[in-house]
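Treating backbone geometry as a discrete language has practical consequences that deserve illustration. The sequence in question and its structure tokens are set out directly beneath this paragraph.
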Amino acid sequence: MKHSFVFSPKHILTVTAIVLGLSMQASAQSEQFAFAGKLNDRKPHLAPEKTEKNEMARKGCKIDIAQEGSEELRFLVRVDNPTHEKLTLYIKDSNNNTLHKEALDGTSPRFVARYNLEKLEDGAYTFELRNGKNKLEKAVDIKTQTMINRVVSVE
């Protein structure tokens, strides 16, 4: 007696969903956000500021984010740290999950880095700068806009 297994559409969809889910999870965990590259000459688009007046802001600490090009999800982050404090930079999603964490040693009054968020899904993300209990935040919203063009031709 021979046994055979027939893949039904339900089985194929289930296996495909499992494989895609595992591959997406693996790629999200290994993602690197910081990258080196030459600055574009295009004018940057500034992110809206979401800062609270706290001890860091009173001391002159500041975080600025500029998008490198209007269609790219690459960002130039500049941190002004005039007091040379040890800071930590986080990139977090809307559920407060930490996607990236980077220690800034405070040896320089200015830190500049580029971050590539192209592989992230649509949603709200926060660049958070901390020194203990105090924090400064900048929000970045990623939204995909799709446009459907219907074309009709009569011959």
The helical segments are 9-29, 55-58. The longest helix spans residues 9-29.
